[in-house]
Amino acid sequence: MIGLRATLEMLNIPIPDYAHRGYSGPTPAKVTIAAFNADNPALRSMVLPDRKPNAYTGTN
């Protein structure tokens, strides 16, 4: 589409409506996911993860 717009601008021809750029903003997928997450908040897990072993080796 950029090639079409550039060509029309160089030839000084009016750009048709379908060739105009869309608005910039968040993608529809991001908006949909944000709306879903707002309606369905995730519940916090009540399960604690396993403890990691202590990294201290005592050789300091």
UniProtKB/TrEMBL annotation:
It comes from the Bacteria. This is Uncharacterized protein. The lineage of its organism: Bacteria, Pseudomonadati, Pseudomonadota, Alphaproteobacteria, Sphingomonadales.
